[in-house]
Design goal:
This protein is mainly α. It has helices spanning 2-9, 11-25, 46-53, 75-81, 92-98, 114-117, 123-134, 143-146, 167-170, 183-188, 194-197, 213-216, 218-272, and strands at residues 136-137, 156-157. Strands 1-2 form a two-stranded antiparallel sheet. Residues 1-66, 182-217 are annotated as: Disordered. Residues 7-19 have a biased composition (Polar residues).
Length: 279
């Protein structure tokens, strides 16, 4: 009975010792703050550009995800405007385009895999990528883009650059593809003005307008002059060919008329009893 009385008198002492024992035996549980990983923006890496252009969402309250709006410049646009990533010597159009501001991330076709397929070893491809990030979407895509050609899903042009071709036509072709508006658009509606189809954004830190191609882009001027000369030569060739065909037709008609006149002369001579001396 005395021991039972002691237990009744001090019930908290035993409970307190059990609580202390549980606290000592409990494992230490430190608190961690979960931080979202930063995207890899290594310049010159195609894979890094693709990773930086992608965004992910999370429901973890300790993780903050910054979601870029649709089409906002991302990893590919940053790499395109940083021409120090280019392994060779940048072309003059590349240097001029690098002074402008990217307005979008390139929209790749669903069937195109840029990490495996996009060739950045040629300056023309780099120029096309820059224009894809800078230029304006055309109101009527060219035939090349309508047929699903080129790596991008949008037909984008930039005034005074790429010899008048869109980025898809210029990629791997040096602007040799013909950039023509859709036939249906030509038949149903008039083509929009040049200012509506193409835009020339202002360079960074320069409020003045972008100089014309003839003033500051000899690359574009030389190629535009060569294209004009080729078109003029083709027009002259067609004109001369048409003239030659017309002359041949006229000669054949004159020969036929001469033969008919000779036949009639012989008939009248026979009726009149005129005999010609044959040498």
């Amino acid at each position: 009975m005395p021991e039972f009385d002691r237990q009744l008198q001090s019930p908290g002492s035993k409970m307190g010792s059990m609580t202390s024992k549980r606290k000592r035996d409990a494992p230490s549980t430190p608190r961690y703050i979960k931080i979202a990983p930063k995207p890899n923006n290594t310049a010159g890496s195609v894979a890094a550009a693709t990773t930086a252009g992608e965004t992910t969402s999370t429901t973890d309250p300790n993780t903050t995800a910054v979601l870029l709006p649709d089409g906002a410049p991302g990893g590919w646009a940053d790499m395109a405007m940083d021409i120090t990533c280019y392994e060779g010597k940048p072309s003059k159009p590349m240097e001029a385009l690098a002074q402008m501001t990217a307005v979008r991330e390139p929209a790749w076709r669903d069937s195109y895999h840029p990490v495996e397929s996009f060739n950045l070893s040629r300056s023309v491809n780099w120029e096309a990528l820059q224009v894809q990030c800078i230029g304006a979407v055309t109101a009527f895509p060219c035939e090349h883009c309508r047929r699903g050609k080129g790596p991008w899903a949008q037909c984008i042009m930039l005034q005074d650059y790429l010899c008048g071709s869109c980025a898809n036509c210029h990629y791997s072709a040096l602007g040799t593809h013909s950039t023509k508006p859709a036939k249906a658009a030509e038949e149903n509606t008039a083509p929009p003005a040049a200012s509506a189809m193409t835009a020339s954004p202002a360079p960074r830190n320069a409020p003045a307008a972008v100089p014309s191609a003839a003033a500051s882009h000899p690359y574009a001027t030389r190629h535009a002059t060569a294209i004009d000369s080729l078109k003029r030569a083709k027009r002259l060739d067609r004109m001369y060919q048409t003239t030659a065909i017309a002359c041949n037709a006229a000669a054949a008609a004159l020969a036929s008329a001469a033969s008919a006149m000779s036949y009639l002369a012989e008939e009248y001579a026979d009726e009149a009893g005129i005999h010609r001396d044959v040498d």
